[in-house]
Amino acid sequence: MSKNAMVCLQCGHRSLQWLGRCPDCSAWDSFAEEPPAVVRGTRPPARAGTTVSIGAVDPEPHQRVATGLGELDRVLGGGLVRGSVVLIAGEPGVGKSTLLLQAAAGVENSGRNVLLVCGEESMEQVAARARRLGAPRKTTLTAGTEIGQIVALMGEADVVMIDSIQSLRDPDSAAEPGSVSQVRLCAGALTDAARQTGAALVLVGHITKDGSIAGPRALEHLVDVVVTFEGDRGHHLRTVRGIKNRYGATGELGVFQMGPKGLSEVPDASRFFLAERHTETSGSAVGCIIEGRRSLALEIQALVMACRPPAVPRRVAQGLESSRLGLALAVLQKHCNVQVADCDVYASVAGGLRAAEPAIDLPLCLALYSSKTGKPVPSGVAAVGEVGLAGEIRSVPGLQVRVNELFRLGFHTVIAPPVHGSDILAEPADSKGPKVVRAASLGRAIAILGRTATLSKI
Ligand code: TYD
Ligand code: MG
What we know:
Helices cover 26% and strands 24% of the residues. The protein contains eleven helices and 23 strands.
């Protein structure tokens, strides 16, 4: 009797026997039996016994179908690829169904057929939302959730959208819809069908708070493209991020705004993130990150307040890693003599964006310093740089791109890492126009702030 392997529902680690704790991701009680046909259909069949010179292979044979949403198409690498599978993963309520409807409208406008499988909501609900959004009129809907029925309907469609993969079921399996085995069986069958019919398949998958897709990460291996759709319900901002792409670059970021008329694209995201900035207030500094081919200016905010003992000082980081905040505070305390150890500290990226780049260290430190001292960072000054444990400012990739973006937005001074260890570059005393001021250490950067503030008062 053949025995199925066990698989960790969190990270996909395989084992021949059940384990109480996953040796890979350390999750407890996360092993379940893996269905046998889990990786079928991930690639087109190889042409055995034939060879071809590498120069004779067309590197871009893919036919793309644009969704008409420029921000999404860019993340996808130019649109949906026929015969391929895209997974759009996001938390419930973030706006995945809305994005799908708007993308369906764009596909429809280019004269292609769309099949939308509504497994989560009734067809009436979907149609009502489509009318309200002025979205698709010709898209074919089905409310079926049995995988065989859906595969049978796929023949006519150029694009098939499944909302969501967790709502489908294969009646041959006794497992519940949404369970790891059902999700994998259904995704496998749909993938096979898409490869055969040449339809572009879009799967919506719910993720949990900790970021895992459908419980398992299993689907990520099965599909060609994975994009995550993120956003905080308290903010209008929604981002689409490419985390896997067999047909293009990853790391691209698409920015949308959720409003009463659905999602609208935000082509100038930097201005969007800086729109609500209060320039006269302390605790705010501007930096710049790079996402894919795009540079994005953003505001880092900090609030530093005395904490009365015996209360334990709080450290709250929103939109940035708490380890970055911890390091920034330690460097300020140790190397710049800024007393923050006994303070409650809150730091966030304004606008609801998530930024994980080391280049935000310097603006973060300046925002913390500004809040602690009550001195605003001069409004025309921005900063870019990683801060090291010795308080040194370290170089970051793409400095010129970041500086250009900040100059475009009207900043006149960008504090930046030194060139090969040298300190502040000599700027002509009468230099007019925007300039980059190099600083070797956080202490130097703070001194530049003071100097710029005095100059701007003159
Ligand atoms: P939805 O697309 O249903 O999310 P998901 O499929 O990811 O669960 O949209 C969820 C939220 O988006 C809903 O709570 C309300 C908001 N929303 C708007 O603000 N404006 C709109 O035009 C639409 C359609 C939704
Ligand atoms: Mg939905």
